[in-house]
Amino acid sequence: MYPQLHAGRVNGGHYVHKWLQLRPQSSAAIPTTKLFIDGKFVESQTTDWIDLHNPATNEIVTRIPKTTNSEMESAVQSAKEAYKTWSRTSILSRQQIM
């Protein structure tokens, strides 16, 4: 028997109760979130992941990497390089990009 999660919501002024059965998921079906480093999405080399759950169903939506030191250093170095150009970009141009 799997644990159950109680979920409720308001439907036309009435509170609707629902019991959701929580089942383990196959890790093969769960996507992983890639890192965005130096303008590219890359797979992390980590062996340590954080499961991100849908709060309504408790299902795992994705796995987020606990970034390695070398990946973090690469991201920081890329940000330092990008800042050189970004800092000279006008506010109007920044608004259009973002």
So what's the overall shape?
A: flat
Strand content bin = 25-35%
Q: What is the CA-atom radius of gyration, in angstroms? A: 21 Å
Instruction: Give the integer mean of the pLDDT values.
Output: 83
Q: Give the neighbour order of strands across the main sheet.
A: 1-2
Would you identify the regions where 5 or more consecutive residues have pLDDT less than 50?
none
Instruction: Report helical residue fraction.
Output: 25-40%
Quaternary state of the chains: single chain
Structural class from helices and strands? alpha+beta
The N- to C-terminal Cα distance equals 48 Å
| Helical stretch tally | 2
H/E series: EEEEEEHH
| Main sheet summary | 2 strands, antiparallel
Secondary structure tally: strands:
6
Task: Summarize the model shown.
Residues 41-98 form the Aldehyde dehydrogenase domain. The protein has 98 residues and is α+β, with helices and mostly antiparallel strands.
Give the SSE layout.
Layout: E1 4-11, E2 14-21, E3 35-37, E4 40-42, E5 49-53, E6 60-65, H1 69-86, H2 91-97
Antiparallel strand pairs: 1-2, 3-4, 5-6
